[in-house]
Structures are given as C-alpha cells and as structure tokens.
Amino acid sequence: MGAFLRKLALLLLMCAFLLVAGFARAQQVDIGFGYGITLSSKNSSSSLAYPPPSEKGGTYPSASLQYLLKNHHYGFNAEVAVRRNEGLYNGFQRFRPFFYDFNAVFAPRINSKTRADVMAGIGATTILFYNQYEPCSPIYTACTPFANSTHLMGHIGGDVRYYFWRRFFVRPEAHLYLIHNNFQFNSAYVARVGASIGFSFHPR
Fold first, then answer.
1. Burial profile 125-147: b = 16 or more Cβ within 10 angstroms, e = fewer
2. What is the CATH number of the domain that holds 84?
3. 5, 118, 137, 175 — which has fewest CB within 10 A?
C-alpha cells in the first residue's frame, strides 16, 4: 500500500507540473495538500447481527489540483483523499477507503487576501478490503492481497482560502459525498472536514 500511495502522489505532482508549465502564465493553477476526518451517521437498528458500520473515523491525507480560467472566478478541480490508517470493519476486517472527485468551481474573491471556492461534481469511492486469511508471497501466484469495491458518487464542497504569505494559502474546507449503492456502510452520505495548505501559481 505504501508503494501505491507513493505512485499516486508522484502522479499528482506530475499532473501539477504539466498544468503549471502549460497554463500558469495566463490562468491560475493551485495545488493543495491537507488533512481531515470523515463523518457519517451510525446504524440505529438492532435487527441485524452484523449491521453495516458507519463510514467515519480515521484521518485522511488529501491532495487537490485546481485550474481557474482567465477571469479567475470559474474553473475545474480534482481531489483525492485516502484514509491514512486501515480501519476495522465490524471488528474483524481491515479496510481502507479512497475518495476521488472532479468538479466545476466558482471562486469568488472576498478581499485582497481571502477568496472562497464552491464546487460540485462527480467522482467515485473505492474501498479496499484486505485479505487476512490467505498468505501472500511470490510462491502463491493466485493470491490476492485485497478485494476492492468501487461506487460512483456525487460531490459538493466549499472552502475559504486565506493567503497568509505571498501566494501561499491555508484553506479550511468541508465536503459532502453522496455515494451510490453504498451497501457496505450504513449511510450513503459521508462528510469530510479538514484543512489544507497550498500554493497558487498565478498572482491572486
């Protein structure tokens, strides 16, 4: 999993470099890295022996890449958030959620150092369930270290960005995911709240 996360981070950095190289002179490109937590409702039913758990808990490192058009008020955004530590599904199965989304963005200016981002879009969540019974090594060629389940989702979010020094900003943020057919968990609604720090590759 560590190798996968390193490759994902490298891919995001490469995408950021390409966007900056191609567009930063005329438009605005922002990159951000943050931390947050997820919130979701609990299962209140006692009719099942093993009810679907709530998809909350753990900390979520995140990365975002945003491109604003020449007027600096409209653009596009891509984000990914991954649970840092594995969770324990109903007390016995290790798992790790991923959230990734692509959005249209409206970015109004509040004052010379502050602006907001309001976004809505689509994406997906992937849940990795780790194999805890079958040993995995090069000898076991048919062994699968994890199973995954992916669901489409809608996304809305918002943040307030404050430029504390030149083009560097801090950004408290909140996101709401509406996950289609999220049968592994109690609710189709999952919120992520946190904060990011980032850099703009164009004057504000």
1. bebbbeeeeeeeeeeeeeeeeee
2. 2.40.160.20
3. 137
Q: 138 Cβ partners below 8 Å, 6+ apart?
A: none
Q: Which of 48-52, 140-144, 157-161 has the lowest mean pLDDT?
A: 140-144
What DSSP designation does 166 have?
Answer: T
Q: How many domains does the chain have?
A: 1
pTM recorded for the entire structure: 0.79
Terminal-residue alpha carbon distance, the chain: 37
CB atoms within 10 A of CB 93: 15
Out of 13-17, 31-35, 68-72, the most confident range is 31-35
Tell me, what's the pLDDT at 167? 92
Instruction: Tell me which H or E stretch contains 178.
Output: strand 168-179
Strands 59-68 vs 114-130: parallel, antiparallel or unpaired: unpaired
